[in-house]
């Protein structure tokens, strides 16, 4: 029957763009937001488990996968996490839900916590995976961070556009037949990933996401922190033990506590793409928290 059996696949209006959205299950609603360079299909093993008790919504973020890719601007605001968060609220409203839980991994975690900050009456619970607030990461940037996360800055600059390098050989750039092979991602998830990275418009939009990250996203975080705004809903952070969260930050929960004082969380024995590498453990952790 393929992946996401029993789920519907639609294009739904967000905040001025249409998103490709997979949705199914029944119960309290939860949105799952993917990271870079994935699409919503990264959740193919987790979403059906959660759908036993929840109505699960998995969109492609704006610019990613088969969602719309709006023209950008000099300040990259169309790809700000604030814009992406507004998409999620609008999509859920279209699906009949004024409140929902939100789970985000990697870039999706940035959208998830921005949704909780901008729409506190909407988000009932928040889960962030393998991420800290953008401003906190940038302020702690040292030689180790620059060595391991150099792509943030390569993507973020415009003098020598990263798109030209990536689109010359996207499958090699994104390790499509090695660490991101069909065996590791699953054949159908891999096919969706492959279609995304082969599309120059998608590559440009994904890079615009990083350009927004270094500019407008950081500003939004700085304004919120200066005003004392905090995330008030129950929040959990999960991190991959075979990624570098602990190497970069020690206990990553300590980074989050000024933003959400009652945050809980723990590590999972996995590499970075935890939804694909440790789906059972992730689904269990999410189900327990939700």
Strand content: 15-25%
- If you compute it from the alpha carbons, what radius of gyration comes out, rounded to the nearest whole angstrom? 17 Å
Count of helical segments? 15
The largest β sheet comes out as: 8 strands, mixed
Measured as a percent range, the helix fraction is: 40-55%
Distance from first to last alpha carbon: 28 Å
Instruction: Return the CATH topology.
Output: Rossmann fold
Give the name of the CATH architecture: 3-Layer(aba) Sandwich
Strand order in the largest sheet: 1-2-4-3-5-6-7-8
CATH uppermost class: Alpha Beta
Pfam families: Abhydrolase_1
Protein name: Fluoroacetate dehalogenase
InterPro entries: AB_hydrolase_1, AB_hydrolase_sf
Domain AB hydrolase-1: 29-278
Describe this structure in words.
- It comes from Kibdelosporangium persicum.
- Residues 29-278 form the AB hydrolase-1 domain.
- This is Fluoroacetate dehalogenase.
- This protein is of the alpha/beta class and 290 residues long.
- The protein has one domain: Rossmann fold, CATH 3.40.50.1820.
- Helices cover 44% and strands 17% of the residues.
- The protein is built from 15 helices and 8 strands.
- The chain has helices at residues 47-50, 81-94, 107-118, 134-139, 143-148, 151-156, 162-168, 170-173, 182-185, 187-197, 200-227, 245-249, 252-256, 274-277, 279-289; strands spanning 8-13, 18-25, 28-33, 54-59, 100-105, 123-129, 235-240, 264-268.
- Strands 1-2-4-3-5-6-7-8 form an 8-stranded mixed beta sheet.
- The longest helix is centred in the last third of the chain and has 28 residues, at 200-227.
- The protein is globular and about 50 Å long.
- The model has no long low-confidence stretch (mean pLDDT 97).
């Amino acid at each position: 029957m393929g992946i996401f059996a029993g789920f519907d696949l639609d294009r739904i209006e967000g905040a001025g763009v249409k998103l490709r959205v997979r949705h199914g299950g029944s119960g309290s609603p939860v949105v799952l937001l993917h990271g870079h360079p994935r699409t919503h299909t990264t959740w193919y093993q987790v979403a059906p488990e959660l759908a036993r008790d929840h109505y699960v919504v998995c969109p492609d973020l704006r610019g990613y996968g088969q969602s719309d890719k709006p023209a950008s601007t000099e300040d990259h605001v169309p790809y700000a996490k604030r814009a992406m968060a507004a998409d999620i609220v609008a999509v859920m409203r279209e699906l009949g839900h004024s409140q929902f839980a939100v789970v985000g991994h990697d870039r999706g975690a940035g959208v998830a916590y921005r949704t909780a900050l901008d729409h506190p009456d909407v988000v009932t619970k928040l889960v962030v995976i393998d991420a800290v607030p953008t401003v906190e990461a940038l302020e702690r940037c040292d030689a180790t961070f620059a060595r391991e996360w150099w792509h943030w800055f390569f993507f973020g600059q415009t003098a020598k556009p990263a798109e030209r390098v990536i689109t010359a050989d996207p499958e090699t750039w994104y390790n499509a037949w090695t660490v991101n092979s069909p065996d590791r991602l699953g054949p159908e998830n891999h096919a969706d990933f492959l279609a995304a990275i082969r599309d120059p418009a998608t590559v440009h939009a994904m890079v615009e996401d990083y350009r927004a990250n270094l500019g407008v996203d950081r500003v939004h975080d700085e304004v919120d922190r200066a005003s004392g705004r905090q995330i008030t809903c129950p929040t959990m952070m999960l991190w991959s033990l075979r990624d570098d969260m602990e190497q970069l930050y020690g206990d990553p929960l300590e980074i989050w506590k000024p933003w959400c004082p009652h945050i809980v969380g723990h590590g999972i024995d996995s590499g970075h793409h935890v939804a694909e590498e440790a789906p059972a453990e992730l689904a269990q952790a999410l189900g327990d928290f939700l």
